Amino acid sequence: MQITDALPDPQLPLPLQQHPQFAQTLCAMGRDACCLTLRSGPHRLGHAVMVARNTLVMGRFGLVSQGPYWANPPTIAERIDGFRGLSAQGVRLINATSGEDGALTDAGFRKVMTAAHIAQLDLRGGEDARRARMDVKWRNRLSRAERSGLRWRSLRYEGEADHWLLAEEARQQKAKKYKGFPPAFSAAWATQNPGKARLFVAYDGRERVAAMLFLMHGPVATYQIGWNGAIGREMHAHNLLLARASDWLADRGIRRIDLGTIDTEAAPGLARFKLGSGAEAIPLGGSWLRLTRAG
């Protein structure tokens, strides 16, 4: 197994954490991140984006999330060899995709956290098809929002560090005690990837009542930040914004929106919102740790 730092095709349908623009953005923020390409002889098997930090006890500690991405289904031997190769490059923790348990175990990794689920919203098939996939209650709330007089706008986010939505996100993270990407990541993304951050805002009259920010990478968009005020919640503004964002993104070649983790215990309302939109719950493979590097 050979591992090089060649960049993957940016038009692949990759999750945000496995896209080369993700590594580029983190490097611009001063973080240690790189793309590792997995090869077997002349054949390119896939790639993994590794984010690393130096630790006193373990040295360089590398993390791969929702990867690696396999270009074609490899053999089990190639998977094991690939995971060992990543370990030799300093990868200690892998937040895996599903179906990798056997190969990770044989490569010397041990599961330390059970699998989560993420929500993926398929945008293909046109507006009518997307609407048909919505849960009935979700679609009814959307209809009420459409009749409510709410206005919405689609805006290009240019990466302003003092943008009001980033301030709202910082307040939300502190108040609700959840950890997400720091707001500065969205600003760095927009700066490093011009035109790839899109903001959708809902208004009741002149008052701003809700917003959603999406990051675009290849044929995929990631729902990055959302804010919903009291009026927005009452008027189901996020239903309206997600539906209109889906139309806007699909018209520009985006085939899927990644809506993030589903947590039915800590955030059941958000989980219902994501799944009610027509999104599919996709199982991941859990978190796997290897304390020592492969030789």
Summarize the structure.
This protein is an alpha+beta fold and 295 residues long. Helices cover 34% and strands 35% of the residues.
Notable features of this structure?
295 residues, Aminopeptidase, 14-stranded mixed beta sheet, 35% strand, 2 domains
Describe the protein's topology.
Elements: E1 2-4, H1 20-28, E2 32-40, E3 43-55, E4 59-65, E5 69-70, H2 76-88, E6 91-97, H3 101-106, E7 110-113, E8 117-122, H4 127-133, H5 136-147, E9 151-156, H6 164-176, H7 183-192, E10 197-204, E11 207-217, E12 220-228, H8 230-234, H9 237-251, E13 256-262, H10 268-276, E14 280-289
Parallel strand pairs: 4-6, 12-13
Antiparallel strand pairs: 1-2, 2-3, 3-4, 3-5, 6-14, 7-14, 8-13, 8-14, 9-10, 10-11, 11-12
Helix pairs in contact: 1-7, 5-9, 6-7
Radius of gyration: 20 Å
Total strand count, please?
Answer: 14
Question: Helicity, in percent?
Answer: 25-40%
What's the architecture of the largest domain, going by CATH?
3-Layer(aba) Sandwich
How would you portray this structure in words?
The protein is α+β, with helices and mostly antiparallel strands and 295 residues long. It has two domains: 2-116 and 284-289, Gcn5-related N-acetyltransferase (GNAT) (Aminopeptidase, 3-Layer(aba) Sandwich), CATH 3.40.630; 124-254, Aminopeptidase. 34% of the residues lie in helices and 35% in strands. It contains ten helices and 14 strands. It has helices at residues 20-28, 76-88, 101-106, 127-133, 136-147, 164-176, 183-192, 230-234, 237-251, 268-276, and strands at residues 2-4, 32-40, 43-55, 59-65, 69-70, 91-97, 110-113, 117-122, 151-156, 197-204, 207-217, 220-228, 256-262, 280-289. Helix 1 packs across helix 7 (183-192), helix 5 (136-147) packs across helix 9 (237-251) and helix 6 (164-176) packs antiparallel against helix 7. It is globular, with a radius of gyration of 20 Å.
